[in-house]
Amino acid sequence: MTGVSRRRLLGVSGAGLLAGAAAGAGAERAASAGRDAAEEEAPAAIPFYGRHQAGIATPVQDRLHFAAFDVVTRDRERLVRTLREWTAAAAAMAAGEPVGGGAVGGPGLAPPDDTGEALGLPASRLTLTVGFGPSLFENEHLGLQARRPPALVDLPRFPGDRLDAGRSGGDLAVQACADDPQVAVHAVRNLARIGFGTVAVRWSQLGFGKTSSTTPAARTPRNLFGFKDGTANIPGGDAALLDRHVWAAAGDGAPWMAGGSYLVARRIRMHIETWDRTSLREQEDIIGRSKGEGAPAGRLRERDEVDPARMRPDAHVRLAHPSAGGGARMLRRGYSFTDGTDGLGRLDAGLFFIAFQRDPRTGFIPVQRSLADDALNEYVQHVGSGVYACPPGVREGGHWGEGLFT
Amino acid sequence: MRLVRALACASAAALPMTVLAACGGEERTRAGASPAGGGGAVAIEASDNGCEVAKKEYTAGTIDFRITNRGREVTEVYVYAPGDKIMTERENIRPGTTVTLTVQLGAGNYQIACEPGMTPPDFRQDITVSGQADHATDPRLARALTGYRAYVVRQTDDSIAKARAFVAAFKKGDVAEAKRLYAPSRVGWERIEPVAESFGDLDPRVDAREADLEPGQKWTGWHRLEKALWKTGSTKGEEGHADRLLKDLGELRAKVTAAQLDPPITPASMANGAKELLDEVATGKITGEEEAFSHTDLVDFKANVDGARTVYDLLKVVVLEKDPALAKELDGAFAEVDGLLKKYEKSGGFGGYVSYDTVGKAQRKELSDAVNALGEPLSRLAASVVR
User: Fold this and answer.
1) Model's pTM, two decimal places?
2) What is the ipTM score, two decimals?
3) Which of A10, A144, A390, B93 makes an SS bond possible with A131, Cβ 3.0 to 4.6 Å?
4) What pLDDT sits at residue A351?
5) What stretches of A246-334 show up as alpha helix (H) in DSSP?
6) Chain B partners within 8 Å of A314 (Cβ)
7) Chain B: nearest CA to A349, how far in angstroms?
8) B201 touches chain A (CB under 8 A)
């Protein structure tokens, strides 16, 4: 596979590259050692087909490109056709292959099917996950009103929300995650291209560092506040928890969603400048965990059980804890972002929060409500929002719109 | 003081429930700060079955402990006030390591507890602290504190007096006059906001913004009246809310004039309050979110900066001795912000400033840059004066 040879050539770590530059002969060994280590924890490709869409319970990759689309056609069949084409393209890209006839080698007078920037790059564990927004079901031309799942509610307004319509909503959403940002961007770009005339990009968001992991054995990543995030996340391997809190069931009100999940996305601006002026002790009190180890207040180790009583009443972890939200749990898959500046000499930085759940009414909504008094609110502001019904996985020969449109 | 909460690092003002404050620990020492421990520190020898404290009698003020874990288990050390109220704690002290723990204690009886394995049982020693409260040990800090408490009361009185006139005009239905009196009535409040915010739900009752309301939360306070004046253009039906504002401000006065503030103001909380005032400017005023209808954000802005400067001026004598470079930086940064704000003064404008919606993007950025340049050194004030 070209992917593997690419890995061999460049190595996957900075160390491999440095070794190559410094001492030609040692480079090959260093690079292949890097490859072995990386492949142990990071297989090149995540299977696209399956009972559930990839990109939910599968291990969290390092990079994100999330895009929301609006449907611009009134032709239902055209939309279905696009979803079918999207599915085929997604399956190819997830396997590390180019879209359609490829980026090169086609007819010289025609633009290539694939845009080309991922040529020679490995699959990079690319996953593409699709969801349908509430507005899709309200579009009178598509006739989907009766198909709207009861769980796909419009999110209520939460205190402190400062939502930008240009960064919220969308008829369709695509979550592209990969270990290489170029691979994730390539995927969204090619889907957008296939979709011209049917769908148009409404907004998109790049994420550069995962802030949650679904693999408890791995080191917990940190968010831009410098704290470990997602310690108590639902592990991707815990089938019982996933069935209870993440996967929709046939009896939940929309049989076509069985095996699917509901994605809530929130663009959360972090006021990192004022946060950085806050004393360490106060930062730890606000979060409810120690900054270094990530141990809950009054405990020793990161994974020690949280004791809400040991925390400030408005500590973030205390209020986000299932005991405060009526037992609500979600599978979080957020990413950090910085998008230039806010025009006021500060970084427009924050967390692009993504959570999957069986039902937002018993997941994100109660959790966010219980965060109304969160001490962290002084340092965060929700500026974008979306909720999407992600259908179940696709079997070979099927497509993303299959359950919804038939 | 009956029971002084230790607030060496945490901010009492914004965090009413904070009961802990431990500075110290070698790994937390920032460049320029002298590490705790050394000659003045009191040794605590923690073992798997005991807790030896080198000294039983203390003078009130800042106390440094130097804890050595002689045991085989990871341990933690607490300083408890009566009723097991935690004054400070240090967790995760590994066998064979020595760490420092700093706490401010007022007169009273306390216990030091070592808890090997970080689970009960623990081993306790009684200690007695006598003399005046911590801040009194440095007469300059005591003076600063007295001066600040008087300032807080003065600003509260100023706000109440001006709010009375504002409310009178409002209830009369004199929209133009009420608009004129609105922003000035807020100045005293904005100058002492971190203190006002420390009293439970008083701040949301007085100063909540519409965008921050929780579902079902009743909107009261200045901004509700602001909306009536600027958006609706009528005070009809809102008179009760105007009265309510005065009542709530009366409650503030009772709290700030109480013999014992709860939570108390300490030199550290006072200094952190200055930083918080700049945070307020950075996240609320610079963006124009605070005064969404009246656009009198610059009046609040100036009041926040004035409140921070008062804190700094009161503490300056100590800063000059302990960190003269910081004093120089703060002097320059305050002057820069003042100079910029001056450009927006306008006689006849609400509260003496131009409407913030006329302040363009580039100008807002200039203001924001100056606020950042001031907020950053201000965040080091607490650690520099309280050692």
Assistant:
1) 0.78
2) 0.77
3) A390
4) 97
5) 272-275, 280-287, 316-320
6) 17
7) 14
8) no
